[in-house]
Amino acid sequence: MSWIRTVLMGDPTHFSVKGGANPHTRTRWGTRRTVDRARAVAQWQRLRETLRDLGVRVLVVPPDPTQPGLVYPANAGFQSDVDAERPLAEKIFTLSNLLPTRAGEKPHYERVLRESGFRVAEIDPSLRFEGEADFFPACERYLFTHGRLERQRFVPALAWPPWRRVYGFRTDARALDLLAQLVAPRPVLRLELVREAHYHGDTALCAFGPQREHLLAWRPALAPESWEPLARSVGDALIELSDADAGVYAANSFTFTREGESFLVMPGGVSERLLAQVRERGVTPIVADVSEFLKKGGGSVKCMIGDLGPVRAEDLVEAGAA
């Protein structure tokens, strides 16, 4: 039986900054950044080809001019038992409840998934939850990240300019109990985020390796009371990121294993030291430049990839996957 690692990517034709919902999307004056569309499309195409060259099947979410955030389908939701080789009928994709400015993306993700043969479920719509960006496996456990939810707005500041933008975080801590039930009996470790520029857990944390047993982590992104239990639970498998590597979203990387070989697709600009640390753990790093998506939209490699796990080749053919 043949299994193919399968992912979602969103067509970048209409990628732009619409809501300006994280610090990367706006200038210091609060104005929304302008995307170099040609550069973004070229970077997206290279990332897609990189994945295809590695044997990954890419399902593309069609573009919608009113939904430029479709290029970040890591927020679409999460796939149950994402690494398990099981028929689609035995897995469920749980859809997210996105930030209001991106809520219109949800039916697009749902349609593509259902048409491709995936089972889809929803959670309580009153609970903000942004998918595998804040809820993902790490070895024998799941990590659940959250932060303070804020009404995004400008507020006065004793600085120049004399105002600042409040962004807040994306996933409601109250979603934890419900999500924990969905992945039981695997334990869930709750972690609080404190840096708005790292507004999702997958911008500061990345579990990788054959069993996702290694972890990239940037300490300043987490509350001190969250860092200590995380460090204890991971032990020697932890690679603590430098500020420079964290700044280029080194943790926003995509991990997968194929025929016993593990890969980590990482953003351009990561240090040679970090690449060497990844190799020392028996994992092959692959670097992809998606800087236009980070600098203008606040998302890098992993944000651009929704992980659907291994899918049987025959299921994909039946689903008509491209």
Question: What does the model show?
Answer:
This protein is α/β, with parallel strands linked by helices and 322 residues long. It has a single domain, classed as L-arginine/glycine Amidinotransferase, Chain A. The longest helix is centred in the first third of the chain and has 17 residues. The C terminus is likely disordered.
Summarize the structure.
With 322 residues, the chain is α/β, with parallel strands linked by helices. It contains eight helices and 17 strands.
Descriptive key words:
322 residues; alpha/beta; 23% helix; 3-stranded mixed sheet; L-arginine/glycine Amidinotransferase, Chain A; 17 strands
Mean pLDDT: 95
* CATH architecture call: 5-stranded Propeller
Count of DSSP-assigned helices: 8
State the fourth-level CATH superfamily: Succinylarginine dihydrolase
Which sequence of SSEs, written as H and E, runs from N to C?
A: EHEEEHEEEEEHEEEHEHEEHEHEH
Low-confidence segments: 318-322
CATH class: Alpha Beta
What percentage of amino acids are in beta strands?
15-25%
Task: Give the biggest beta sheet.
Answer: 3 strands, mixed
Number of domains: 1
Q: Structural class of the helix and strand makeup?
A: alpha/beta
Rg from C-alpha positions?
A: 18 Å
Q: Helix proportion of residues, in percent?
A: 10-25%
**Overall form:** globular
Our measurement of the CA-to-CA distance between the termini, rounded to an integer number of angstroms, reads 20 Å
The strands making up the biggest β-sheet line up spatially as: 2-1-17
Q: What is the tally of beta strands? A: 17
CATH topology: L-arginine/glycine Amidinotransferase, Chain A
